[in-house]
Amino acid sequence: MGNIKADYKEEYNYKGYFSLQSYLSKEQVAQIVYHLDLYEKEPHEGMVREVKSGELRAVHGPHLYDSFFKELSQNRDIVALAEEILGEPCYLHQFKINLKRRFSGEQWPWHEDFVYWHEKDGVKAPKLVNIVLFLDNTDMLSGPLCFIPFSHNSLWSYASSANVEESDWMRDVSADLTYQLDTEVVSKLISKHGTEFQMGSPGDLLVFSPLLAHCSGNNMSPHHRRMLILTFNAISNAPSKQNRPEFLCGRP
Ligand SMILES: O=C(O)CCC(=O)C(=O)O
User: Which domains does the chain have, with CATH numbers?
Assistant: First the structure.
């Protein structure tokens, strides 16, 4: 795994994210993709399909059902990175691979992540971090993540914008997300801070705050846009509810 730049923590705290090219080697990416292809061939809990096309949208919690992904989720460099950012011992709260299939992978509306972990899982503080590994070339056509830089500083107060009393976990990971950011809030944030699209190549690393406003569009390209996301939480901040399956709400 590649070396992390010295000032990444300042950048993370300042902008709400940082990225690094070629964190994984080509061989490491190929190995992940190989195991992912095998994993997708069998039915597993936590698999979610796109509503329109029926294509697989994402796999959740592959580390619970597959030894390769279990080992990956325990990779010492990755866990150490999460612990350095959070400044305390962590556990894996969520592990998903968003598959965003060629021509059919659907959007993720504007949202921030922490509201889900707070409302659904009873996680008290935003002491979590998302670590993303790119598995494919990601360009403007394939529905890259789009961030509003600096938005992690103001979103805590806007967090709950859903009109749902109860919703099943499937909606929390669908193209019609349970908790979406209010368009007025998004407009104000964009006029202040602009947007930054997160394009990249297989093996690139992206780390972002659970309070950062983000979205992504449909994949209109002839290539898949697969992205692996590991979310770590501080052990001191463990969930107090068990509403959702373990593949969405891990435990220390
Ligand atoms: O895969 C994407 O483009 C977006 C993922 C995302 O926003 C999320 O998992 O919260």
Answer: 8-237 (2.60.120.620)
